[in-house]
Amino acid sequence: MAKRQDTKKFFENLSGAGKSIGVLTSGGDAQGMNAAVRAVVRMGIYVGAKVYFVHEGYQGMVDGGDNIEEASWESVSSMLQVGGTVIGSARCKEFRSHEGRLKAAHHLVQRDITNLCVIGGDGSLTGANLFREEWSGLLEELVQQGLIDEKAAQNNSELHIVGMVGSIDNDFCGTDMTIGTDSALHRIIEVVDAIMTTAQSHQRTFVLEVMGRHCGYLALVSALACGADWVLIPEMPPEDGWEEQMCQKLSENRADKKRLNIIIVAEGAIDSHNKPITTDHIKELVVSCLGFDTRVTILGHVQRGGTPSAFDRILASRMGVEAVLALLEASASTPACVVSLCGNQAVRLPLMECVQMTQDVQKAMDEKNFEEAVRLRGRSFENNLNTYKLLSYRKADSELPNSSFNVAVLNVGAPAAGMNAAVRSAVRVGITEGHKMFAVNDGFEGFYKGQVLELRHMIIVITCDRIKQSASGTKRRVFIIETMGGYCGYLASVGGLAAGADAVYIYEEPFDIRDLQSNVEHLTEKMKTGIQRGLVLRNENSNENFTTDFIYQLYSEEGKGVFDCRKNVLGHMQQGGAPSPFDRNFGTKIAAKAIQWISRKLKESYKEGKVFANTEDTACLLGMRRRAMVFQPVVQLKDQTDFVHRIPKEQWWLKLRPLMKILAKYKTSYDVSDSGQLEHVTRVRPKKVD
């Protein structure tokens, strides 16, 4: 990928004055699309552009009229937490014809719209690129037919396209995640968790079909997250004889006193001969071979429904802002691009490079070149698949490598959702590596007391939504919410971005009474318009004097006659509940990677019957840094840590705070140093990083 410049760049120099942006959603709906639409509208208006809704996707563009409507700041209020797409989506056969695209061009020129944000799948984005390529020819035809004049053609001579991928299947190459995927995983895991209770009660086997006609991402990641016994996906057809292997594994698990079996099947699952594998076939197989009580559940469109997850809201909001920046910087020579996620960064990639690679995946599967298909899916898919293989293949004791090492796993500090998934993964991988695995109860205190046992086999946004929804039937109400986090404002800031907060107070960004007064006045002016709900978040240690009670009383007093206030201290409920699919999946993968690193270090440090772990690279912290998982020696963290407040000296997520302020209608400065360069899709297999 292209190297980025280190010099800081701010978007204040980019003006949208005189420009018009159209935003549409096309194809299948996905949770988070509304967050993307909201971000495009507000960012577009913020920079001085006109923004238009194109209702019902390309069909609305072809039909014109009221389907193309100018958007206002208030028109996207209260849509952040709504699933689906409020501006509508439709599959349009007419747009596939030249005549249909000619009508669409006419309707856009009538409103001087020469910038399009298209949110959809690869088909929708391919159609947008074709539209752009034909644009000058379409304008010539419109002039010849007398529908527009030469001046209108000159004023609208260039059409710029930026895409965002909205697809619950995560089937688009070039991005780690598409809008809607994480929310769909939430729906699947909710169902799996519910099924597990009834399955355990009756010792049943459940076969679940999830969406994914051409891509097995949902099936693969949900299998990782819930510890499924077997998974079937299009990219990894089972070898001949898989039926016996699956039944043997189910039987072994039941013999180990496991009271339930879960089999997850992608709707596009096939065998090695490209023959479809159906849930009914699997049920018949399990019943006839094992006699297990087996039920089939087909989740269907429930996976598309419901409230978008925090991840999808943040992803879509970041992509929407980046899309507007890309349109402002576009020129006649700039190819249509798609905004993608790489690690924790938003990047721009040429749209047709990504589309071509997505089509190459299907071509590879049609040719039964499944290894190539997995590689083309990208590093995220490949890592998930490798981790699943590592955890799912259980070797007999005689097959295990001979290791003389004992490895212990312990949890330290406050509890966090996803810890159990990490422990499970660490133990399984450790056993596969041949180590004796031990669990230490009660952290370091348990370690000191000898509470060691050998093991052989082994979020805020929802609350904010509920609080905001409780105010939906009232007139103008503001909620003040206190979050946890110690001196770290990550939870408050990212939760505020995901929930559409009007203000977020954190320790890392000092504030005084003038800031508070300015925020109150800003919110009061907003509430005098059509906006009826406000949300203010405060990190628990943001300021010792400006407490949650103080802020509540200030807003209550200054908002008299305009809005009333309520407050809520979330407390330890933020540490409770079931872990999200992201936490389960991340915990599983990071623990597997950690144990493999430990195994390698043990072998490197083993000399004459002893382990010499006396170099700084033998005690590391594993975590995500920009685009990669990095092992960093703990010694090096000393200079990067504020030990008094127990936070890093530099917080990467602080760059997201201006984005939150912009979407809340504050004038602010936004560092776009990481934006602006069009990168290219990497086809060469990257070097393996331990």
UniProtKB/TrEMBL annotation:
<dbReference type="InterPro" id="IPR035966">
    <property type="entry name" value="PKF_sf"/>
</dbReference>
<dbReference type="InterPro" id="IPR022953">
    <property type="entry name" value="ATP_PFK"/>
</dbReference>
<keyword id="KW-0547">Nucleotide-binding</keyword>
<dbReference type="GO" id="GO:0042802">
    <property type="term" value="F:identical protein binding"/>
</dbReference>
<dbReference type="GO" id="GO:0070095">
    <property type="term" value="F:fructose-6-phosphate binding"/>
</dbReference>
<comment type="pathway">
    <text>Carbohydrate degradation; glycolysis; D-glyceraldehyde 3-phosphate and glycerone phosphate from D-glucose: step 3/4.</text>
</comment>
<dbReference type="InterPro" id="IPR000023">
    <property type="entry name" value="Phosphofructokinase_dom"/>
</dbReference>
<dbReference type="InterPro" id="IPR015912">
    <property type="entry name" value="Phosphofructokinase_CS"/>
</dbReference>
<dbReference type="GO" id="GO:0061621">
    <property type="term" value="P:canonical glycolysis"/>
</dbReference>
<keyword id="KW-0479">Metal-binding</keyword>
<dbReference type="GO" id="GO:0003872">
    <property type="term" value="F:6-phosphofructokinase activity"/>
</dbReference>
<dbReference type="GO" id="GO:0048029">
    <property type="term" value="F:monosaccharide binding"/>
</dbReference>
<keyword id="KW-0808">Transferase</keyword>
<dbReference type="Pfam" id="PF00365">
    <property type="entry name" value="PFK"/>
</dbReference>
<dbReference type="InterPro" id="IPR009161">
    <property type="entry name" value="6-Pfructokinase_euk"/>
</dbReference>
<dbReference type="GO" id="GO:0016208">
    <property type="term" value="F:AMP binding"/>
</dbReference>
<dbReference type="GO" id="GO:0006002">
    <property type="term" value="P:fructose 6-phosphate metabolic process"/>
</dbReference>
<dbReference type="GO" id="GO:0005945">
    <property type="term" value="C:6-phosphofructokinase complex"/>
</dbReference>
<keyword id="KW-0324">Glycolysis</keyword>
<dbReference type="GO" id="GO:0005524">
    <property type="term" value="F:ATP binding"/>
</dbReference>
<keyword id="KW-0460">Magnesium</keyword>
<keyword id="KW-0418">Kinase</keyword>
<feature type="domain" description="Phosphofructokinase">
    <location>
        <begin position="21"/>
        <end position="326"/>
    </location>
</feature>
<feature type="domain" description="Phosphofructokinase">
    <location>
        <begin position="406"/>
        <end position="455"/>
    </location>
</feature>
<dbReference type="GO" id="GO:0030388">
    <property type="term" value="P:fructose 1,6-bisphosphate metabolic process"/>
</dbReference>
<dbReference type="GO" id="GO:0016020">
    <property type="term" value="C:membrane"/>
</dbReference>
<keyword id="KW-0067">ATP-binding</keyword>
<keyword id="KW-0021">Allosteric enzyme</keyword>
<keyword id="KW-0963">Cytoplasm</keyword>
<feature type="domain" description="Phosphofructokinase">
    <location>
        <begin position="459"/>
        <end position="598"/>
    </location>
</feature>
<dbReference type="GO" id="GO:0046872">
    <property type="term" value="F:metal ion binding"/>
</dbReference>
<protein>
    <recommendedName>
        <fullName>Phosphofructokinase domain-containing protein</fullName>
    </recommendedName>
</protein>
